[in-house]
C-alpha cells in the first residue's frame, strides 16, 4: 500500500532540461556549434542563427535544442567540456560586476577604476572600450565576456599581466594576443565571447604596468602581522 501511495504522488522535482542554464553551459554549446561550423556541418547562416539563440537561452533544454542534431553533442555529454586557457568552473560569479553596453553608441571604462571579477561588454552597432592599463585590481582573476554584433569591443591590459582568450568570430574577428606574466601573483585576465559581423580585440598596452594589486597584497600582509603582534 505504501508503494502504491508513493507511486501516486506527483513528481515535483525539476527535470534536467528545465534547469536554468549558466554561462558555462552556454559557452559549452557555443563551442560545439563553432566546431560543427568548422567541420562543415553548419553553414555560416545556421551557425550565426544558433549562436544568437544560445546567448538568449534560459534553460538547459533550450540549449540542447541547438545541438541535438550534432554528433559531437552526444559524444561529449558523458564528460564535462574544458577548453585550454579557461578557468575552473565556479571561479567567477554568474552575474557580472559591471556591464558595459553600447547600442548605436559608444561606451568606455578607462582610467583609474576598480575592476570586478566579471565584466560583460556588449557592442551592437556601437563600440566599447575597456582599458585596464590604469585600473585597480581587487582580484587576481578577471573574466571579460565580450559580444560584438556589427560593432567593436577593444580591450587593453597592462603588459605585465597574463592574458588568455577563448572566444570566436562568425563572419567577424575575435583576436586576443595571449601572454603569460613571469610573476605568479600577477592578475590573469580571461577574454571570452563572440564577434558576429563585428570585432573583439584584446592586447597588452606597452609601457603600462600593474602594481596596485601587488602593493595592496603586501600592505594587507603587513597589517595582519601588526595586528597579530599587537595581540
Automatic annotation (TrEMBL):
Domain DUF1707: 19-71
Residue intervals of the Cell wall-active antibiotics response LiaF-like C-terminal domain: 112-181
Pfam families: DUF1707, LiaF-like_C
Region (Disordered): 1-24
Protein name as it appears in the record: Uncharacterized protein
Amino acid at each position: 500500500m505504501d508503494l502504491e501511495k508513493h507511486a501516486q504522488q506527483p513528481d515535483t522535482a525539476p527535470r534536467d532540461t528545465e534547469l536554468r542554464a549558466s554561462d558555462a553551459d552556454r559557452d559549452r554549446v557555443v563551442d560545439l556549434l563553432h566546431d560543427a561550423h568548422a567541420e562543415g556541418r553548419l553553414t555560416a547562416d545556421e551557425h550565426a542563427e544558433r549562436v544568437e539563440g544560445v546567448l538568449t537561452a534560459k534553460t538547459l533544454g533550450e540549449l540542447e535544442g541547438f545541438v541535438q542534431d550534432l554528433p559531437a553533442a552526444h559524444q561529449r555529454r558523458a564528460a564535462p567540456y574544458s577548453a585550454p586557457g579557461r578557468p575552473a568552473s565556479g571561479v567567477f560569479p554568474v552575474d557580472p560586476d559591471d556591464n558595459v553596453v553600447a547600442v548605436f553608441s559608444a561606451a568606455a571604462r578607462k582610467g583609474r577604476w576598480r575592476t570586478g571579477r566579471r565584466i560583460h561588454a556588449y557592442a551592437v552597432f556601437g563600440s566599447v572600450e575597456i582599458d585596464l592599463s590604469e585600473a585597480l585590481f581587487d582580484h587576481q582573476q578577471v573574466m571579460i565576456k565580450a559580444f560584438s554584433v556589427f560593432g567593436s569591443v577593444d580591450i587593453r591590459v597592462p603588459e605585465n599581466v597574463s592574458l588568455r582568450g577563448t572566444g570566436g568570430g562568425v563572419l567577424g574577428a575575435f583576436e586576443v594576443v595571449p601572454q603569460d606574466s613571469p610573476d605568479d601573483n600577477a592578475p590573469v585576465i580571461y577574454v571570452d565571447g563572440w564577434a558576429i559581423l563585428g570585432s573583439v580585440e584584446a592586447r597588452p598596452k606597452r609601457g603600462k604596468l600593474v602594481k596596485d594589486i601587488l602593493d595592496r597584497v603586501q600592505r594587507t600582509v603587513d597589517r595582519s602581522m601588526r595586528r597579530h603582534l599587537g595581540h
